[in-house]
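Researcher: We're teaching a course module on how sequence relates to structure. For the next exercise, students receive a sequence and then see the predicted structure as C-alpha cells, so they can try to spot secondary structure elements on their own. Here is the exercise chain.
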Amino acid sequence: MNGNSKNPVVNGSGDVQGRRRALIKEKIRTFPAMPAFVAQVITMLNDPAADAVTIAGRIKFDPGMTANILRLANSAEFGARRSVRSLQEAIVRLGLKQLFQLVVASGMGRRLSKPMPGYELAPDELLRHSLWAALAAEELCLALSIHAPDMLFTSGLLHDLGKLILDEFVDASKVEIFKVAGEQKLSFEMAEAAVVGMNHADAGAAVLDQWHFPAELVAAARWHHCPEAAGEYESIASIVHVAEFLSYAEGIGTGIDGLGYHLSQEAIDNLGVRKKDLEWVASHTLDKMRDLEKLLKD
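Model: And here is the predicted structure for the students to work with:
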C-alpha cells in the first residue's frame, strides 16, 4: 500500500474493490506502449553501440522530432556560438541524455495533455505539472550540488503516469474516496487505494515496468509519495517527491489531490534542503518551463 503502515478498510466493499482492481489490471495490461518510433529511438539510445549517425538515420524520418532537436540544439540554453544545421551534429551537441529526455517528453506529451475529470485536471494540466516536476528535479540537484541520476528528468516527467490509468475509476468514486480519507485520516493516495483497489503511484509503476523501463524510474513512480520506503532508490524518489511538492506550491496541476500533498520531512532532511534552495529552484524552473513548453507545442 505504497509504504504506509496503516491498513485502510472500506466496509462492505470487498467485492466491488476486487472488480475494480481486476479492471485496473486489465487496463494496465492493454495500456498502449510508447509510439513505435519513440520506442525504437529509446532502444537505440540505450544501446552502447549506437552512435549519432545511426540515431540520426532513424530520427530523420520524423520531421517534427527533427525540428525539435535542431531547435533545442540551437537554443540559448546551449550557448552555441554557431548554429548547427545537420541532425547528426545537433545530436552530438545535445548528448544522448538530453536527447533521451526530449524523445520521451515528445512521445508522452499528447497523452499527458488529456483532460482528466477524475483528478479535476483541465487539458494540459498534467503535462505542465509533469514537466515542472521533471525540470525542478534537475534544478534541485544543481541547488544542492548533488549528482543527478541519469533517469531523473524522465522520472519526474512520468511520476504521475498512473493517473491516466485511474482517472475514470477516481471519477466514479470521488465521494467515497474523500469519505474514507476523512473518517480514517488518510492521505488521498491511501484512500484512493482503499476505495479503487490501487493508487496512481502503483498503477504508473506497473505500466513503466511493463514497458521495461529502468528499475530506478519504476521505483521513483511507485514511491514518489513515500520516498523513505524506496530502499536503494530513496534518493531519486526523494528528489521527485520534493519537485512535485514545488509544482503544487506553484499551483501547477493541483487538481483533486495537490492541496493535501504531504511533504516528507525525512526526504527534506536526507537531501539537506533549505528554504532558500526551494525558492531558487522555483525561480529557475519557471524560466526553463517556458522554453520547454514552447518547444513541445511548436
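Model: If you want an answer key for the exercise: The chain has a mean pLDDT of 87. Residues 75 and 83 are 9 Å apart (CA to CA).
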